[in-house]
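Here is this case:
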Amino acid sequence: MTQNDIPAAKAAAPTERVVRSSIRSDNHRRAARAALPTAPLLIFLLLFLVIPIGSIVHTAVSDGEIARALPLTTQALQAWDGDDLPATTTFMMLGQELEAAGHVGSVRPLARRVGYELSRGANIILGAQRILSEDFDRADPQAWKAQLIKADPAWGQSGVWSIIKHHHGRYSAFYLRWATGFPVKIEADGSLSQESSYDFRSIYLRTILISLVVTGLTIVIGYPVAYVISNASGRTAAVLLFFILLPFWTSLLVRTMSWIVFLQTNGVLNNTLAQTGLVSTPLPLLYTRMATIIAMIQIQLPFTVLPMISVMRAIPTNQVKAARSLGAGPLRAHATIFLPQAVPGIAAGGLLTFVLCLGFYLTPALVGGPSDQMVSFFIARFTNEDLNWGLASALSVVLIFGAGLVALPLARHVARHSSDRI
């Protein structure tokens, strides 16, 4: 390069940068225009999936009832070592904040929250508020202490003070620990409470076992049905597919209620068995684990069969015929040629059924017994009856993330197998 070419090269460098920047901007605009048709879907997912899940997670870790009602007491207790009782001035501070909380209506939420973690916790808080309305020397901290201990001896022990101390913030993992089965109740003296609580670990195990049984049986029942439909042609395939889709036109509640009519003591099945002489007394079919599984299979069967049909219809039939022409029997040809290619459909249908079964609420609640209720039943109970939204949200978070841990690896496996077939 000569000396005369150097200025020209320097002048061309800014121009090249401008061209590259213009190309990048044009590519970004094209990508944005290409993604524009997906905007409604993204907005829908944001409004009805991401934000609700975020709200549930936030509720599961929110734990500010104690700090909001007793802000000064919780801060003062941070210097308390937990060995002896707090300072007398802390008793006075607590009493004054309980009185203030009574005026703004935050005592009952405080009592309910303390009761989640302390045996008789709600009574301890409410009793203290009632006795503080009596006449006593409000200028003397010792009088406040005596009045609180008079209301309940628990104020003379460390348990209730430890709970107040440990909940000085707006967030904690208390509800998540409760939802995962760790002990949360303590006695007034700080020892672990023997009070019975929900065995959430058994409930999770029951939910998983029922979901696995239903998934396995729907695959076993649905595979031959999907195979017949995928290999049928014309009107036969249309009629069979119509019967598979027919349950979607009926309310889930109606389908579940029909099983109650069919399985109850004086129901269709028991009356038929009695008339034929097969049984002398009605069989206890309703409100059992068997009734729950049968009803869930009937509801979930279409969700298992439809993915199988879509995959099976894409398998070339001449491959099985070629295996038969080479001497393989019908079962061997099907097991070695057709079945491996149908695995993505089986996995997709099974995965969809399993994830849906994890969240079943209505069917077990109507046809199952007390020992057949799944996690969703308790989520609804804590939401609507006990008004314990923190625990209900924590159970939902555990269920969502548990289902995600199962579903995501299987979904990747299905996608990988499907891409390999393509």
In short: The mean pLDDT is 87.
